[in-house]
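re the bet — no i am not wrong, look at it urself. input seq straight from the record:
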Amino acid sequence: MKLLSVGVSPTTIKDIYVHSHDCYEIIVNIEGEGISVIDGKKMPFTVGTVRVIPPGIQHWKYSGEGFRDLYLHADELLMNEYARTKTVSFSETRTFSDDGTGTLASLMGILLSRSLVSGNIHEDRIAESLFEIIVRQLYEWAENDPLDPIVDALTKKIALSYSDPEYNITDALLATGYNKDYVRRRFQKVMRMTPGDYLTHIRISQAKNLLERRADLRLDYADIALMCGYYDERYFSRVFKKKIGMTPGEYERSLRSVLS
């Protein structure tokens, strides 16, 4: 099992042409929503959608608003303890949802940073260890697949609705048709955070993405707040600081200092 490459969409893109690989591809969507077409089948994607695509499978994706992905390529996805039992297979395309804290996206982001620093991930033992952890996480999800269908549907709904300031978590819980407290407990058990915290996580993650490109997009902070589901810019700033440890302006300035 060998990691071949790791990368990220350099900017927001609206479509990728039809293609295939002679290796496995692991894709984590980190921005936007749209449709993937894999082996002729249409499959929706949102922030946090994870797909494992085997070699030789034609695929492409598109989005009206644009999207960004983290991705890696590997010659195989085989771990000895699972190979012996044969309880999990990646011979067909598999789809998962990243957890509420974005574990897989975080691991792949660190792996990407290691590749940029070392210049040669094939001789980087830390990169190898990170890759093994990523694959082990996929096997763990596959063993427990499918995700709780109620939780899965709710996470997708939240990811689609995060930019709506009128979106109400209580209404969303009631819309499942189950008791809201029952759904909240199931959600927290699977995602390790409440539905409200998950909504905030998605909103702040998107705010960080927009702040990184604020100058190019010519947005002010009120625009970003509204695009991330907050009418009140000051309230958005308080929530952002609580989660990130700095205000949106301080976060943006910290990015410039790193790049300078």
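see?? The domain at 3-143 is CATH 2.60.120.280 (Jelly Rolls). told u. also The two ends are 38 Å apart (CA to CA). so pay up
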